[in-house]
Amino acid sequence: MKRAERVQAIPPSGIRRFFEIAEEMDDVISLGVGEPDFSAPWAARMAAIDSLEQGKTSYTANRGMAELRAEISKYVRRWDLDYGPDEEILVTTGASEAVDLAVRSIVDPGDTVAVPEPSYISYVPTVRFAGGEALSVPTSQAEDFALTVEALREAGAADADALMLCYPNNPTGAVMTRSQLADVAAFCREHDLVVLSDEIYAGLRYDGEHTSIASLPGMRERTVVFNGFSKTHAMTGLRLGFALAPADAVTAMNRVHQYTMLSSPTTAQHAAIEALRSCDDAVEEMRSQFDRRRRFVISRFNEMGLDCFEAKGAFYAFPRCGGDDERFAEELLRDQEVAVVPGSVFGSGGEGHLRVSYATGMSELKEAMDRIEAFVAEQWSVA
Ligand code: PLP
Questions:
Q1: What is the pTM of this model?
Q2: 353 contacts 44 by C-beta, under 8 angstroms
Q3: Which of 4, 159, 269, 350 might form a disulfide with 118, Cβ 3.0–4.6 angstroms?
Q4: Mutate to test the pocket of ligand 1, among 35, 231, 233, 269 (most ligand atoms within 8 A of CB)
Q5: pLDDT value of position 21
Q6: What integer pLDDT is reported at residue 19 of this predicted model?
Q7: Residue 378 Cα, ligand 1 centroid: separation in angstroms?
Q8: From atom 5 of ligand 1, which residue's Cα is the shortest distance away?
Q9: pLDDT at 193
Q10: Ligand 1 mean position to 96 CA, how many Å?
Q11: How far is ligand 1, taken at its centre, from the CA of residue 197, in Å?
């Protein structure tokens, strides 16, 4: 059948190939996927069940249930974000839909979106599906994978129309401080860039509170913030996220949303209301377990000679593998049955690194790290 050129032009995700190999193996430990090993907090699941029992299976308002938008408005105040529930919040089907809606309602064909790399795998395809061009802006371990104004300048981002930002970051686990963000914010104001800020890991910081770029002076009016329930509330399969933006941007995103999605899953919205009302303790418990695992994984990598910078957010470690990352990941999978993702699938700056998700139980993590250590000692020579 005929297929659209702009879809044909995008290669399939590099992560998939590893999962396909892994699926054929019996004893694989996967540190490949970016989702919590926990289930959603019980109270949130109960709220979903109750809503189904009561027959609440209809569409909701396009923008999401008013009750949920009111809870989101209160929730994001912890990051100094002040968004009105009626006009400035849009409930979406995962943060993924929020990113897509923002790109489709802001980016015209031929516009340029600066994308710091290594980057979450969806941004570049999303920009291209909308007819835009993605401009790679490298980040590096020398800067703890923070985005710098120098890198923006050197890449030519002064001429871009928008900047995609993702801190805490997938795949590196990097975070940015308020003052680092303030520099980037000043650059965006000076060169009139819209900021698309994916803050889905805002609740998973291990070194203090998250700062949203939208909370910095002069940034609210040029920023769209994305967040959701997949990571902090372990609700990946319920598919619920949200966007925060000035009213005119939300109206534009809602125009695409109402024709393509109508409304986001109703059952998930009931779960999310309860998640925001009563699940902070459950979220904190998951966060502290991730933190324990994070320390363990990073120190094991450094001990075995794979240099690993201190990731302070999300649930990924991003060690250097001392050679070809694709070969490392493939041989590790075949020889030791541990799945990790080669850093190069995340774009420039990812080469020579591995993305290792520690959203896996401690006993499996210990076994996986033993196997990686054996692989490094016996089969791999660190360059
Ligand atoms: N943004 C980032 C940075 C992610 O890592 C992910 C999932 O891995 C998503 C968005 C997708 O989130 P959702 O499940 O809410 O669509």
A1: 0.97
A2: no
A3: 350
A4: 231
A5: 77
A6: 73
A7: 36
A8: 170
A9: 98
A10: 6
A11: 12
pLDDT at res. 307: 96
**pLDDT for 383:** 67
Residues of the chain predicted below pLDDT 50: none
Contacts of 98 (CB under 8 A, 6+ apart): 90, 92, 224, 226, 228, 241, 242, 243, 253
Q: Which pLDDT belongs to residue 103?
A: 98
